[in-house]
Amino acid sequence: MIEVLFAVIAWLVGWWINSRLANSPAAKTRPVKLAVPLIFGVTILIVWELLVRGLEVSMVILPAPTVIAERFATSIPILWQDFAQTFIKGALSGYLMGCIAALAMAVAVDRSDFLRRGLLPVGNFVAALPIVGTAPILVMWFGFDWQSKAAVVVVMVFFPMLVNTVAGLSETSAMQRDLMRTYAASYWQSFFKLRLPAALPFIFNGLKISTTLALVGAIVAEFFGSPTVGMGFRISTSVGQLALDMVWAEILVAALAGSAFYGVIALIEKSLTFWHPSQRG
Amino acid sequence: MKNILAVLTVVAAIIAFWYAACVPMNIKGVLDQAERAGATVTPATAKERRDMGSFGLVATNTFAIADTWAQDRPRLPAPHQVAVELWKTTVEKKITSKRSLIYHGQVTLSATLLGFAIGTGLGILLAVGIVHSKVMDMSVMPWAIVSQTIPIIALAPMIIVVLYSIGVQGILPKAIISAYLSFFPVVVGMVKGLRSPDHMQLDLLKTYNASTSQGFWKLRLPSSLPYLFASLKIGIAASLVGAIVGELPTGAVAGLGARLLAGSYYGQTVQIWSALFAAAILAALLVALLGLIERLVLKRMGMSA
Fold first, then answer.
1. A252: domain CATH number?
2. Interchain pair B151, A254: CB under 8 A
3. Do residue B75 and residue A41 have CB atoms under 8 angstroms apart?
4. Is the residue at A65 inside a domain?
5. What's the topology of domain B101-300?
6. Taking Cα atoms as reference points, which of A47, A45, A43 lies closest to residue A55?
């Protein structure tokens, strides 16, 4: 039980350091801004570890962080296979196909004001629906392997992407478009030089929302049937075997993959939309 | 008026595409059935047909097109088949029946609403804490943002099994997944909302010698409402997804997710599609309801645009 006491102390110490840092004059500097959440995260991990040990929480309820880390380190080959199957084959290929298809559709629709006004409400409506539910149908059509997962991802990312791109393409003002016309710019010239750059913040918003959706789609689709590899498959079978350390290791992989994916898109956004007020800070 | 016409056109185009897609999707099954019934099918055996493309089969067997919209277990059911199934399982079945979609929908809905209430409540509380405490802001907020990039739903099977092993079952595990999914959008939106009053307004309250709590109740909370409603709409859709996914891994017997799973086990495509549409209708109703409340509340507060 002594660990529980340590846990309380660790929490208090972590909180005390953070409140000193947050209220110090250096609070606005970059290192402190990074350090505070990190200290908070580490404190949570220490408290978690100590509580699990101190209260002797059973492995099938909550494994300690060290156990999870050990499992993660010893099963990297399996985790890598699952990652390749679910993320690279399923999520990433579906993400690319879905986003490109949505972009193409948005550009095609863009020429007709009538279609755009019809498509926006429909797209917005569909984007709010529980589209993961199509997973059993698509698994039936495309088989158990990654193709069906990619198909689920395509359906999931298509509508948010479409709605954002269509909204972005109508972002330019009449003044700007008139200016292009006085330059005698063709449709495609004004598209590539004015409207597409102006739509980029919206397009990237759609791309960023879609990163999470892509992972969710690929993982949930595996609950409906998969080959004997993949993050969703591993999670559901490990839960069945009560091997919760493996589940947590897989969740860690999902978390890392998800934030890295988002981070990469955000970095690309930063380099392409440096001119936008939200990026100039 | 013009917008409604445009929307109807798009919807009509989608339905037309759907009917058209049914033909190549279902043609093989229809032809196999027709052959067994004794009709003359152009490539005579199933083996030959397997090597042919769907569109080729449609071209050589035009008589079978009508049947592709009326199959018993089609690969892609036609819109009217889904509509008929929806009608049968909602209006014609008794609500207590195990085959009534209203019964299943209500199971999922109760978990969704309970989870949504828990998630929203906790989310608002955390947001209030974040806005008023610099320490919490700096330590928790980055994690709340990062957690939105994580496929939280991967936790669903584990939450259910862990709660089951400590004796909690029924509606609560699903509600916890729902709560978890609606929690973060609400936190992020609410923090943005509570911070939305500008310096002028905050300074004005300071000149009135208003206390922190007065500032909260009279300025921050009212001005956060538009943001709150925007994230509530995202949150309720996420809650519904959470409740549906929460029904998948345990082999639950009731709920829309269980209907989806049972349909996929037994190849009852019409059942899957009707469960899917029931979920979609439910989501649309919930979002519309929130939109209505939003309009009424904001109108009363004089904030509606």
1. 1.10.3720.10
2. yes
3. no
4. no
5. MetI-like fold (1.10.3720)
6. A47
**Domain boundaries, position A195:** 72-280
CA dist A172 → A178, A207, B136 (Å) = 10, 20, 39
Give the closest-approach CA distance of A193 to chain B in angstroms. 29
B77 vs A contacts (CB less than 8 Å): none
pLDDT bracket for residue B207 (50, 70, 90)? very high
Residue ranges covered by each domain of chain B? 2-76, 101-300
| Residue A67 belongs to a domain | no
Q: Are A229 and A171 members of one domain?
A: yes
pLDDT, tens only, B227-247: 888 889 888 988 998 888 888
Q: Same structural domain for residues A36 and A83?
A: no
**CA dist., res. A174 & res. B190, Å (int):** 34
Residue from B101, B112, B138 whose CB has the most chain A CBs within 10 Å, to mutate: B138
Tokens of A185: 């710019």
User: Across the interface, do B138 and A33 touch by the CB < 8 Å criterion?
Assistant: yes
Residues A33 and A164 in one domain: no
Contacts of A62 in chain B (CB under 8 A): 162
If asked whether residues A52 and A93 sit together in one domain, one would say no
Co-location of A40 and A117 in the same domain: no
Query: What is the greatest pairwise CA distance in chain A?
Result: 79
Please tell me whether the overall predicted TM-score, pTM, comes out greater than 0.90 for this model.
no
Q: How far is CA A7 from the centre of its chain?
A: 32
Residue B136 neighbours by CB under 8 Å, 6+ apart: B129, B130
Q: CB A15 to CB B135 under 8 A? A: yes
Mean pLDDT for chain A overall: 87
**What is the predicted pLDDT for the residue at B120?**
94
Chain B: closest CA distance from residue A80 (Å): 17
Nearest to A255 by CA among A204, A216, A208: A216
Same domain, A97 and A235: yes
Prediction ipTM score: 0.80
Nearest Cα of chain A lies from the Cα of B54 at a distance, in angstroms, of 14
Q: What is the mean pLDDT of residues A112-121?
A: 83
* Banded pLDDT at A110 (limits 50, 70, 90): confident
